[in-house]
Fold:
Amino acid sequence: MDDLLADFLTEANEGLAALDTALVRLERTPDDAPTLGEIFRLVHTIKGTCGFLGLTRLEKVAHAAETMLGKYRDGELAVTPAGVTLILSALDRIKEIIAGIERGGEEAPGSDAALIAELDAAAAGKLPPAPPAAAAAPQPAPAAPPPVVAAAPPAAATSGAAAAPDEAPADPAPGGVAAPQTIRVSVEVLEGLMMLVSELVLTRNQLVQLARGRDDGELSVPLQRLSHITSDLQEGVMKTRMQPIGNAWNKLPRLVRDLSHELGKKIELDLRGAETELDRQVLELIKDPLTHMVRNSADHGLEDAAQRRAAGKPEAGRVLLNAYHEGGHIVLEVGDDGRGLAIDRIRAKALSNGLATEAELAGMSEHEIRRFIFHAGFSTAAAVTSVSGRGVGMDVVKTNVEKIGGTIDVESREGHGTTFTIKIPLTLAIVAALIVEAGGERFAIPQIGVVELVRCGDAAEGSVRIERIKGAPVLRLRDRLLPLVSLSRLLRLDDAAEEERGFVVVTQVGPNVFGIIVDRVFDTEEIVVKPVAPILRHVTMFGGNTILGDGSVIMILDPNGIARATGIGAERADTAAAEAGRDGMRSDSRSALLLFAAGDSTPKAVPLGLVARLEDLPAESIEMAGGRPTVQYRGQLMPLVPLAENWVPGAPGTRQAVLVFSDRDRSMGLMVDTILDVVEDRLRIENGPGRPGYLGTAVIAGRATEVVDCAWWLREAAGTWFGEEAGAATPSARILVVEDSAFFRHLLVPVLAAAGFEVAAVNTGIQALRLRDKGAVFDAILSDIEMPDMDGLALARAVRAGGAWASLPMIALTSRVEPAAVRAGREAGFTDYVGKFDRDALLLSLRQCLTAQAGN
Structure:
C-alpha cells in the first residue's frame, strides 16, 4: 500500500467518525445549516479523493450520498429521520469498503446498486415515510479541537517520521480563521521521543541533586536554563501522546441513536468531561469496553417507557458517561438510571454456576455479590437479545481494563440504576510528587492526591496532636476527625515506629478524606512513572515506581489502593448516595456521634458535627443570670442549659463538662456529666418520639441510647435562636436538604429522620443539580434561600425550568419570613415558605405537600 493511499484511508476514517456525530446532531436540529455544510464537505472530500485514486466503487456510493446531501443543503428537500438513516447506511457501506481496502490494498468486489438506487430515489423526493422515532436525541459530546500532531493508526503508519500534510478543507472555517496545519507522525516515533524525554528528566534530576551540594554560581545558571527547556520539551511531547477522551466517544451518539430505534426506547446520552485527556494507547484500549457497557445499559439496564412511567420515572432513560481526574487516577463512570442489578438473580446464578456455595454467599456483602458479573460467561439476562445481556462480556471489559493496570467496580441499587467505575492509574507519565520517608524507606505520593500536609507533635509545641479512639489513631483537624493510616505499619516496615510525632499527608479518595502518617517529608520532585512489575501487581498500595535524582529506585504510593487495603470507603450504597456523600450527608449513612452521660444511667448521643467544642469549665466560672446559668465565654455571655433535671451548681474546685453549640455569632452550652466516647454508627431511631428534648432511642455501639433533640435545647437556651417563632410525617419519603450551614444540616437531618423520612443533604444548589443530573430520585426539596454560588431562588428557577424534578414540592426553610421575601420565593417556584427552625410547621408543610403531590 503506497503512502498516498495510506493517507487517504487515515483521513477517510477520521472524516467518517466525525460524520456519525454530525448526522445525529443534524437529526436533532434539521435547520442547522453549519452542521449540514460540514457533513456535505466531508462526504465531498471523500468522493473527490477516492475518484482521484481510482476507487470507483467507493466513489459511486459517496457520489450518491453527496447528491442527496446537496438537495438538503440547497433546501430542495427537508431533512427527515428516514433520510438521516439512509445516509448513515451509506456511511456504513463506505466503512465496509474502506475496511476491505485496508485488508487487501484494493476494493473488494461487491454490488451497491440497491443502496445507490435508494439514495437516488430519496434525492428525487421519493423516500418512503419513516416510522415514528422512539429516541430522545442523545446529546453529542462537544467537538474537540483538532490535535496539532495526530498519531497514525497501524494500517497507515509509514516507515518515515512524517507523511504528506493534510488536505485543506474545501471552505474556510467560520469567521475566516484557517484551520491549523497538521502532519502525520508514526506512533513509533512518538514512543521513541517519549522515552528520550523520560531519560532526559531523570538526568536533569541527577544534575539538580549534585548541584544542591555545591556552591557553584557558574553551574547554577545553565542548569536552571536546562531545567526550563526540559520542562517545556516534556510538556510538548506529552501533548502529542495525550488526546481528549471525547475522541473515544464520537461513535456513541450514533450507537445510542440506533439502539433507541432498535429497542423502541427513549434514551438520552449525557457525556461529561469530554476534554479529559488520556494517553493514546489507553484511549484505544478503553473504546471497546465503553461501547460494550453503553450497549448493556441501553438494552438491559434501562426499562421501556411503560415500565418507567409505572416506576414514577421520566419516559426517557438516561445513560451517563463521565470522565475526571481524582487522586492521580483517571476515573470513568458509565451509569444509567434504569432497573439496577438484581442481587437475588446474581446470587442464584452464581450458585447454579458453582462459583460459590450457599454458605459463602450468605456471608458476602451485596457489593461482593455484584462483582460476580465480571466472571466469564456470567449473565442474568432472562432472554438473549441481538444487542447484549447485562453481564455478558463483562469479563472481557475487566480484562481490557486490567491490561492498562486499571480497576473496574460496579455499584447498583435495584430500581434506581447501575454505575460502573473504571480507575486507570498513571502508566507512563511525568508528574510532580511529594517524596516522603516511612520506616527508613522513601516513597513518592503524586501531588495531585495530596490535600494538605500537617505536622504533628506535642501540644506544648503548638502543633496538631494525634489522638486515639479505642486504639485507632485519629487527627482532629478543624471541624472533623480524620482516620489515620500508619504507612510503616501498613507496609510492615517498622512495627515499633513512633506514630505520635511526624507528619500526616491528608489525601482524599472519592468522598473519604484520611491521613497517611509518615516519618519525614523531603521535597517535591518531577518523577517519571513506570508501571508496577507484574510480580507486585497484587500489592494495591503501589501505583508505579520511579528513579530519583540520586539513582535510587522508589515505589509510588496509590492513595486509592491504601484506602482499599485499610477498608476506608470500601462500599457506597448507590450512585445518588455516593454523590450526596461526596457533597454532604445522608440520614442512612454512618456518621460520627458523641456519646455522653447526663442525669440517669442511659447514655445519650448527639451528632458530632453539631458540637463546636468540648469544654471542661471550672464550677466557679458558672454564674446565674435571670435565674439561668451562664458563663463568660470568649468575650460574651453564653447561656448554659443543664441536661439533667436535678442539676445543682458544683462546689468550688470541681469542673463541669459542657457541649458547646455555635452557629455564626451565637453559642449555647449543654451541661452534661461525663463524655463517654466518639463512635461512628448509623443513626436509626427505632423508638420515638421520646420525651421532651429527645428524638427517641437508637442502638448505638451496641447499647440503647437516647438521641438528643438539639433544636429543643437550643430553644430552651434562646427562644429566638432560629429567628422569629412562629405534624405528622409521610414515612419513607425521600427528602433533599440544600443548606450551606453545616450546623443546620446536622441539626435538621436527625429531626427529619426521626420523623420517618429518608434524607440526603448537600451544601450548595450546584451540588443539588448535580444529583438531579445523575438521576437521583426525591419526593420533596427543602432549601435555604441565602447560599453562596447559587442561592435558593436560583435553584428553584433551575428546578422549575425542566427535568426530572420540575414538579417536586419545594419548601423554603429560612429565617427571612417577611412578606416581600415570601412573595419572591413563591414567584421563583417554591411551594411553601417555612421559618427556620419551626419544626412543627415544617413537618406539617411536608405532609401537606407530599399528600397533594400523591393526589396529582
About this structure: The longest helix spans residues 3-28. The chain has a mean pLDDT of 75.
